[in-house]
Amino acid sequence: MMTVISAFLQSIINGNDPLSRLLFTLFVIFTLSWYVWIYSKSNKVSTPPLPPGPRGLPLVGNLLSLDPELHSYFAGLAQKHGPILKLRLGNKLGILVTSPSLAREVLKDHDVNFANRDVPASARALAYGGSDIVWTPYGPEWRMLRKVCVLKMLSNATLDSVYTLRRKQVRETVAYFYSRVGSPVNIGEQMFLTVLKVITNMLWGGTVEGEKSASLGSEFREVVNEMTEHLGKPNISDFYPSLARFDLQGIVGKMAGLARRFDRIFDVMIDQRLNINKEDGSRSAAENIVSGKEDFLQFLLKLKDEGDSKTPLTMFHLKALLMDMVVGGTDTSSNTIEFAMAEIMNKPEVMKKAQQELDDVVGKDNIVEESHIQKLPYLHAVMKETLRLHPVLPLLVPHCPSETCAVGGYTIPKGSRVFVNVWAIQRDPSIWENPLEFDPQRFFNNSKWDYTGSDLNYFPFGSGRRICAGIAMAERMVMYSLATLLHSFDWKLPPGNQKLDLSEKFGIVLKKKNPLVAIPTPRLPDPSLYT
């Protein structure tokens, strides 16, 4: 057989006719191509596969199977397909991460690569094109915004300087609840109004004072709830970018309308502060902030004028930061307070222990001050346990790799939308004993878990470079509010409500599905402590 092949090749090589030359050329091309294919195959580095995941339909992928309660739906998918999986969301690839080790790879080991955001269309409409600290891409502009927030606006020194604002609003809330003794009150709504007043007073001196404050606060809460709901809602414009200009679900239009309501307030406040700044140019911004002579808006306006020419703070940045503070600061803190109060009321022994600690530290002839907070380890444990069961952002803010990389042995393509399910991780029975049980004791006098995001078993505020910038503000507001509510009042459900509802409603910010309505009863002997 080999003799026949050899003779055939010899005849092609030695032949002078056109057919022989053609066959010889084809033989050489085939031989070279074969050698190149063999060589490339032997030296090729195998690319990891994409993560596993449920099968989807043509064109739409897994979009039609999404459940509105994404955090629990994603947790269920992880139990079936594993701690890392993919979802085809139209033209977008979604990656779900549901284990501490994989979360560490995303948020720590490959932190820089995953430090960007896949900005939804609704966020661009809300945050002035994504000019805020939440959605701005990682880089010099983001670092400038982060520095303004963490080192200037939300530093411990600055927060100390505006304690009187927090104290005033919390004491007004106590007086309101005292006026409603024996009657049902909506705790979440009232605490939202309290936090809103604190933040707006810090930003520009407040806009919700007087007789209309309650109704205006309720309106603000409705707007903020709608905003956070739209931010967490699956949007066709995100999954099919070519269709984004049509806004088929109307989400961008609705969000833009809501944003304009805040923008009008921002414009009024900015004009007022520009006039004040013209009249008072003698003191520096930092001096006025610390002395309480200047609000954050005045500080930001001066920073805009005096800022770095390489990465300037623009008016868009300034307004986007105001939006972050109002939207991100109010709903998150008030929802945490509401969840904590609901869990405490559902566990009378927890309420009793927290109140005993408060009585020991504060006493019943005094009112709670922020200086007492560091002496309340059990109440700190209550807050930590609340954030374990009900993390503020159950899926964090989605991350987006700037380059294709490998996580958990799987390929994560550039531009994917990566969800880290902190809600599921913090309820994982392999990590937490009785994970669905509200038990503050697991955090009591235990320094293992904090809010820094260093332990990826517990990271309610995220981890890595994009960790929440407002942790210090949130901790102060939630702890001070909880301590005051529990020290000043006993709480019980209205008659006829035998069982306390603890169910959740998904959004980019986690909420109680049904409002917490409870009846306050004074527990301090001196009525003057409530005025």
Automatic annotation (TrEMBL):
Q: Key word Transport present in the record?
A: no
* Keywords tagged on the record: Heme, Iron, Membrane, Metal-binding, Monooxygenase, Oxidoreductase, Transmembrane, Transmembrane helix
Required co-factor(s) are: heme
Chain positions recorded as heme binding sites:
468
Keyword DNA-binding present in the record's keywords: the answer is no
* UniProt GO molecular function: heme binding; iron ion binding; monooxygenase activity; oxidoreductase activity, acting on paired donors, with incorporation or reduction of molecular oxygen
Task: Give the InterPro entries listed for this entry.
Answer: Cyt_P450 (IPR001128), Cyt_P450_CS (IPR017972), Cyt_P450_E_grp-I (IPR002401), Cyt_P450_sf (IPR036396)
Membrane-crossing residue ranges in chain numbering: 21-40
Q: Which family does it belong to?
A: Belongs to the cytochrome P450 family.
State what protein this is by name: Flavonoid 3'-monooxygenase CYP75B137-like
The species this protein was found in = Juglans regia (English walnut)
Source organism phylogeny: Eukaryota, Viridiplantae, Streptophyta, Embryophyta, Tracheophyta
